[in-house]
Amino acid sequence: MTQETINKIKNDPSFQELTTKRRAFAIKLSIAMLVVYFSFILTIAFNPSTLGTPLSADSVTTVGIPVGIAIIIFAFILTGIYTKRANGEFDDLSNKIKNNLKDN
Amino acid sequence: MNRIFLFLALSAITLVGSEVISGAVEKQALNVSAIVMFVIFVGATLGITYWAAKRTKTAKDFYTAGGGITGFQNGMAIAGDFMSAASFLGISGLVYMKGYDGLIYSIGFLVGWPIILFMIAEPLRNLGKYTFADVASYRLRQTPIRTLAAFGSIATVTLYLIAQMVGSGKLIQLLFGLQYEVAVMLVGVLMILYVTFGGMLATTWVQIIKAFLLLSGATFMAIAVMAHYDFSFGALFSHATELKGIEIMSPGGLVSDPISAISLAVALMFGTAGLPHILMRFFTVADAKEARKSVFYATGFIGYFYILTFIIGFGAIVMVFENPAYLDMAKQAIDGGSPILGGNNMAAIHLSHAVGGDFFLGFISAVAFATILAVVSGLTLAGASAVSHDLYASVFKKGKADSMSEMKVSRIATVVLGVVAILLGISFENQNIAFVVGLAFAIAASANFPILFLSMYWSRLTTRGAVIGGSLGLATAIVLVILGPIVWVQILGNAEAIFPYKYPALFSVSVSFAAIWFFSVTDNSDNAKQEHKAFEAQFIRSETGIGAEGASEH
After folding, report:
1. Looking at chain B from residue 290 to 329, which residues have their Cβ under 8 Å from any Cβ of chain A?
2. Which domain holds residue B225?
């Protein structure tokens, strides 16, 4: 890549839009995953009985079971949300940057 | 080449065949339906290897299956790498033994995947060619970075291989009635065949087929268990607690203190993002779009698989626990309780017999063996690539090796690694290997991951910082594992551990990041200035993929 190309891409508004938006989105989703997971793991470390509470008086199923399954599904949904937006909106921006490069 | 392959493949089949005969004479525990199904699997995968061998002409074909794997296929293969025999039998065994703790463990293995997608997958695909060291050394000095990355890869792969080989030997001994050494050699020889002849294309398809078989088998088992209870989880859990007590429904002793909890989480998350055989899979797809899809599908398959193993573990509690058919009478006479044949990790295997009889037991046993084969193949290919691409082509030949000689070196490296794996498998037969996978994850998290991550995102990273920090992280991980409770107390027999935690990752990863930061910001050399300047171009390619398409051609 020549310095000229680098400058052209760097000054392309689409490039700035792409990097800012994607970075913000990726960080938001990562924080969501980390907060959920670390809340879970720290609850286990500090107060395990919370997750051991039965769902209802006559049930042996504890709160921990649906919570655990929900975290697995949550992780999958997060990857789906990211993939959908990145493969649509972000890739469109990437293609726009590539086209701008060809046009000039 | 193909003639050699046919000859070796036939010899391997004869090896299985002859053992079937001699085994039948000597041992009662021989499982005929398992062996028939396993021979079919081996035959089919050798067929795939033959097909793949004809399509593996260049180094690019060898390392990345030509780059033409789709996101869905790659997602399945990544999930297959993760769904090893250790995780299928180990996690269902953990659920069988401790109930809820098994779920905690599997969640830890899963949550690294979204982070890999958001942070690693795209830059990795856009910057790399064959190995993750391509990315780490993109703007840094090739020789030191590649050497360190190759060392980290080979260490991770070798430790993982030890665990898989020992596990496979014991499992096959138990399931098929073959001798331990024969089983280990069989795994080693087949893996060498798949990888040397079929490269990444064969390795990927073996992994995909196995993942499909494993998911189908596990689905059948989970449905069969649930059908017994009219698909009511409440009924299943209440029967299980009648047998094993109410405590299996809540967190037990797996994570006892906050430091261990966080350290385990760090090891699983960052370790997954530093496993060379997983990272390598991102180069088999065409572009960043397919790389993202791969993680999406992989997370789905792995999450689904963990939900199945949870049901399977509880199924084993209600159908295998205290069932006289699976009781180890000899062991019970000495220790009391209700030990099952082959130990807790056999819970899923016994359950397959309980729900589907001899035929289904044979199927699950064959799938377990296939799982081991597929996983060791992926590991060996990753180790061989570190030798041929990073050490031989980049460090030794300074990037001037031609594709043919590089491929030749990786084939030789595969054979050597395969032989080493067989020897390690045999010599570790009676060793306590509980620390091995933990150490592999700790090294991946403390040496491989920090360098890879910072090379992608931090413009101030310099060669000096990466080499010193990565080496310190690696050393800290190894030293803390040796001084920790498993090696220092359980293996070396000392009274008390010098380092009190089982998982060192929190400390070794921190050491690595801190040292990389310190030795980078204090680096005022001309070299460091150039590396800082080169970040801009790297960043543009990493973000947009511009330049990446061309790079995958040469």
Report:
1. 292-293, 295-296, 299-300, 303, 306-307
2. 2-431
